Amino acid sequence: MIAKLAKTCTLRISPDKLNFILCDKLANGGVSMWCELEQENFFNEFQMEGVSAENNEIYLELTSENLSRALKTAQNARALKIKLTNKHFPCLTVSVELLSMSSSSRIVTHDIPIKVIPRKLWKDLQEPVVPDPDVSIYLPVLKTMKSVVEKMKNISNHLVIEANLDGELNLKIETELVCVTTHFKDLGNPPLASESTHQDRNVEHMAEVHIDIRKLLQFLAGQQVNPTKALCNIVNNKMVHFDLLHEDVSLQYFIPALS
Question: A GO CC term (predicted)?
Fold first, then answer.
């Protein structure tokens, strides 16, 4: 999933969590991502030592596809070990213990080159602050949404996402020749969104954000399975924030509005 969302990303390792991070540099078109895994849900044994006791973290930059490819070889493995090594240059070494036809096992090792990120750059890699959304709404089935957006991309590069507190979400494109809107109804809004700041607001009022359709499609293409929870938070004319939960993995993805 991460490899589809970000060519290179930062892996943050701390005693209890792993994070895959893409920060909102203009090079990414302002897109940012924060993906979080609780290490105890994935590893039987976990040892890490950060820079110091109070900065007990490690930040690495890597090519996501390299890690994804290495882990794919471990699908039927007996054991998998990931460690930080130095082989003339820093590496994330993935050792996979595979069962062979005879009872003996064989070890396959992948050395993935990485860059260790110095502490002075950590401040740019913290969890993004989510501004209060104007509308928070559950997403429709992502596969359906993806096929709609794929068709729209043939007509326009820009898309408007709009939603309200009455469970309605629309995807709109407009060109000089044509205007196309897809309506999703009865999606539901999370309880807080309907109660909190919006008591005095018309629930049918739409909040909207105008975004690059390719950024949305890249996000949707990265979703291989429908998540346990999928939320869309719209900050009117500023950004759209997707908040997904896949069993043990949470993913936040931010797409800024086009200026």
Answer: cytosol
